[in-house]
Design brief:
The protein contains 7 helices and 18 strands. It is α+β, with helices and mostly antiparallel strands and about 290 residues long. The strands form 7 sheets. It has a 4-stranded antiparallel sheet with strand order 1-2-4-3. Strands 5-6-10-7 form a 4-stranded antiparallel sheet. A two-stranded antiparallel sheet has the order 8-9. Helix 4 packs across helix 5. The radius of gyration is 27 Å and the shape is globular.
């Protein structure tokens, strides 16, 4: 069993694959425009350097060219990144890599799926999971990207051809974040000093565009308690648990009356308080507490 070492070269090749790669019966291929010669050569060199696999360019067709690597090793390795464009994803170990490796993955990915205009940089993918993963990797590098959902619609190409575009996810990087990404990609980009999204005090800040509610039934909700400030990250969003809940405690032996109400910060404070006084507590299913004599 062969192992690949986590190097910047491997991660740039992974970035190319996430953007332009696909698996075939005998190996993998990378699809580029025929004039992107530098990218062709880079993928060929990376396949040789990282996996000792020979890759070669296939004859241009319809303005495109494929770099093909007939290797079962590469095919097996890239299986973990999802089968098909819509299911591409980043495995968990990617997020444990060094910033140097993450940087190269972003470079390879943006060379394939990224574009640039006068408002900044952007990338498009049909995989929501991959789009969110790339957004998180950019955060590691100090770049805040906004991820938008593009609904399916019929698109008219410049040559007049119509095609039905599937649902896509677009990452948008503008303002000072575009300048930062430009430095990473080796492309100068003017810093406009404007930023609707920014990083401060270790957190990424996004503007609230709208607030919606949804009616649910039989939804189990968990109130988590963590050390100190009781905040935590839930799917990348800074969250805070419920506070100042009211608990009713029965103090008499027959438990027929609720004669005390405790306003507490966390449930553990009530438990700790009574145990400190030598009580053993029994918790009923409806939230009441029985204090044995």
């Amino acid at each position: 069993q062969k192992r690949a070492t986590a190097t910047p070269s491997l991660f740039r090749l992974i970035g190319y694959y996430l953007a332009e790669g696909s698996r075939s019966v005998n190996g993998v291929s990378f699809s580029f425009h025929q004039h992107e010669n530098g990218f062709h050569d880079d993928v060929i060199a990376l396949c040789r350097e990282v996996f000792d696999v020979h890759a070669y360019p296939r004859k241009p067709r319809n303005g495109g060219i494929d770099v093909v690597a007939g290797s079962s090793l590469l095919r097996q390795f890239f299986e973990q990144f999802g089968l098909g464009s819509a299911k591409k994803r980043l495995p968990s170990w990617i997020f444990q890599a060094s910033d140097a490796c993450i940087r190269e993955l972003v470079i390879g990915y943006m060379r394939g799926d990224g574009c640039r205009d006068q408002t900044g940089f952007s990338f498009n993918t049909v995989s929501e999971s991959l789009g969110e993963g790339i957004r998180q990797l950019m955060l590691r590098l100090g770049v805040v990207a906004c991820l938008y959902k593009l609904e399916p619609r019929t698109v008219k190409l410049p040559q007049g051809t119509l095609y039905d575009r599937s649902c896509q996810w677009m990452g948008d990087i503008g303002g000072s974040n575009a300048a930062r990404l430009g430095e990473i990609l080796g492309q100068s980009y003017p810093d406009s000093k404007t930023q609707s999204c920014f990083i401060a005090n270790g957190y990424a800040h996004y503007p609230v565009r709208s607030i919606t509610t949804r009616a649910v039934e039989d939804l189990r909700v968990f109130n988590l308690e963590v050390q100190d400030d009781h905040s935590y990250l839930a799917d990348g969003v800074a969250s805070h648990n419920c506070q100042q809940e009211v608990y009713k405690v029965a103090a008499d032996r027959d438990f027929r009356e609720w004669d005390e109400v405790y306003h507490i910060s966390t449930w553990s404070e009530v438990v700790a308080g009574f145990k400190k006084q030598g009580y053993e507590l029994d918790l009923y299913s409806d939230g009441r507490v029985r204090i044995p004599s």
